[in-house]
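Give me structure tokens for this 208-residue protein.
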Amino acid sequence: MKKFSIILGLLLIVSCSPKLFKEKWTEEKAPEYFKARFETTQGSFDIEARREWSPIGVDRLYQLIKHDFYTDIALYRVLPKFVVQFGIHNDSILNNRWSAVKLKDEPVLKSNDSMTISFARGGKESRTTQIFINMKDNPRLDKLDYGGVKGFPVIAKITNGMENVQKFYADYGPKPAQEQGAIYEKGNTYLKEKYPKLDYITKAYIIE
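Here you go.
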């Protein structure tokens, strides 16, 4: 009976995750150039990514998009005169597994201009799944020394749909971002109860 209970427990843990994670995905190399579309509750926007800007970061972005990580993702930090940040999945298991595979740090090779995209990070080798859109030219983010790491390497830029990005609900200001622990723990249920007007990325995918 004890053995059966352990097996049942493991099955329940796996069943809690609607998507599978395979560590080999984190070894996939992106094309030198690719495009992707993000569909949101305000309409879609398209991006282009180039490995020459940040090879390791662009590889991770490609992996996350290709394997459907950015599905039902809250745009929880919307500061119109600064950035829009997202990348916490509703599934805590997926968050933990992707975040366990850290990315090596890279230098900033392209400036954080308006509508470029970079990974958020809080220290050495801390880039994982969270990214942000620059809502204006943010050159200080090219050189900002934070947690012993200098700057935020750009991984992509928006080429179409900028007007939709400008529509993301911003009246909550920085408050949701100050509660990331609760978001990681309770997911979208927590956000939809406390911040019901937030916008979401419904899905993201590679386009030809």
